[in-house]
Amino acid sequence: TVLVVDFGAQYAQLIARRVRECHVHSEIVPATMPVADMMARNPRAIILSGGPASVYAEDAPQVPAGLFDTGVATLGICYGFQTMVQELGGTVERTGRSEFGRTQLDVSAEGVLFARTPTSQTVWMSHGDSVTRAPDGFRTVAATDSTPVAAIENPARGLYGVQFHPEVLHTEHGQELLRHFLYEAAGCRPTWTMVNIVEEQTERVRTQIGGKRAICALSGGVDSAVAAAVVQRAIGERLTCVFVDHGLLRAGEVEQVEKDFVSVTGARLKVVDAQEQFLHALSGVSDPEEKRRIVGREFIRVFEQAAREVVAEDGAEGEEVEFLVQGTLYPDVVESGGGSGAANIKSHHNVGGLPEDLQFGLVEPLRELFKDEVRQLGAELGLPPEMVWRQPFPGPGLAIRIVGEVTRDRLETLRAADAIAREELTRAGLDRDIWQCPVVLLADVRSVGVQGDGRTYGHPVVLRPVSSEDAMTADWSRIPYETLATISNRITNEVREINRVTLDVTSKPPGTIEWE
Ligand code: XMP
After folding, report:
1. Residue limits of the GMPS ATP-PPase domain (predicted)?
2. ipTM of the complex
3. pLDDT digits (tens, 9 = 90+) for 182-203
C-alpha cells in the first residue's frame, strides 16, 4: 500500500485517486498518526500531501517524528515538500513571491521524477513560502522563475519532493511523475484494479453491516445505484432499495430504475409514492437551502417509515433496519464542508442536509471515490451503460431547478422541458461529452413573447450544459447551434408555459452547476 499523509484541505483524496490510477493501492492517514502505526501498515511508499498551512504558522502540522529514517520511499508535495526540506535542514523562506496556477517549470536534470519528459513543462502551483536551499544530499532537478528549488531528489535515501501539484490535471506530466515515483523509486507494481476495489468495498460493507439490515435510497442516478449494487453484493436480501417518488423526478425515472438496475442486480425494490407529502412540505418555500433541508428531512421520514414496513413485511417483529446506504461521493463531502478545513458551499442533501436525530447508521461505500471511478465500478459490477453513463441528478431533484416556489404545475412544465432537452442531446450524440445539462425554470420571472398572432406572457427556462471532470469545477459546454436551436424550438412549441429559452455561459467557479 501507499500511505497518503493528509496535511489538510482537499488535496489528499485527489492524490489517492491518482495513485489508484497508477493501479496501486493507497490509504489516507492523518499527519498526526505516529510513525510506528504507519509502519504497521507496511507501506511501499509514502506521499506527503499539500495543505493550507504555512510551515511558519504556530500550529503548522508536523511530519511525524522519524518518518524520514524509515527507509520507505517518500514524496513530499507542496506543503509536504516544504516540511520535508525544513525537517532535513534545507531552507524554506518567505520570499514574498507567491505562485498560483499555471506555471512554467524548467527541468535541469531528468533524474527519476522527470525521466523521459520535456525540459520545459507546465505545472500547477499554489504556494506562498518557497524552498531556497535543498537539504544536504539532495539534488535540485527543477526550478521556476520565482522558485529556485521546485523539485529535489535523493535516490539513495528514497526521498523526493516537488513544490507543484502533480495530482491536478493542469500539471502536464503530473501523472507520469507519480508513476515514476511509485514504480521506479518505490518499486510498486501496477496490480490494483477495479476488481480489487469492488472486493475491498464489498468486504468493508460486510464488516460494517454485519448481520443487520440496510435500506438504500435509490434516486435513479448512477451514484446511488452503484452504492446499492455494492451493498447488495455484500449483504444480498438484507438490503432493501427504496425508491421515493417525491414528485421532483424527471420523466421516466421509476421505469428506468426497474429496467436498468433491478433486473440486473436482482435487488429488492420498494417504490413509495410520497408526492403529496413533499409538495405539501415545500409549499410556500423559495429559499434554496430551505428547500434542501426540507427535502432531506422528508426523505429521512419516508425512509424511516419504509424501514418499518420492510421489517413488518418480513414478519420480523422486534428487528430494525439499522443502516442507510447513500451514494455520497468525495466531491459531495468536500463541498458540504466535510473535508477538513473546507467551506460549506451548499448542503447537498445526502451529506450536510441530514437531520441531527438520524435513526440510521450511514453506509457510504463511494465516499472516497470520484464520479468517473464510480462509473468504472458500476461497469465492473455489471450495470448497463445506460445506468453507468447517466448524467448526475441532484437528490433534491427538480425542487432546486425551479427558481421560486415549487408547485405541481411548475414541476410538470419543467419536466416536459427537461425531457425535450435530454432527448435532443442524446439524439445529437452529446451525452458523454457533457457532464450534465440542468434545465432551470425561472418560475418567478415572466417575459413577453408573441406566438401565433397573440401576445404571450410566459416563463423563461435556462439550459445549463456543463463539461466537468468531477463537478468541483466545470465549464459551460459548447453545444452546436443547431442542437440548441432544435431544443429551443421544441420547448417553446411544445411546452405551453415557456416562451423563452436561454443559455447559461458561466463556468464553475464562479457559478455552481445547479442554480440553487
Ligand atoms: P453544484 O450545483 O454544487 O453541483 O455545482 C455539483 C454537482 O452536485 C449535484 N448536486 C447534488 N447532488 N444532492 C445531490 O445528490 C444535492 O443536494 C445536490 N446539489 C447539487 C449537481 O447536480 C452537480 O452534479
Report:
1. 192-390
2. 0.98
3. 999 999 999 989 899 999 999 9
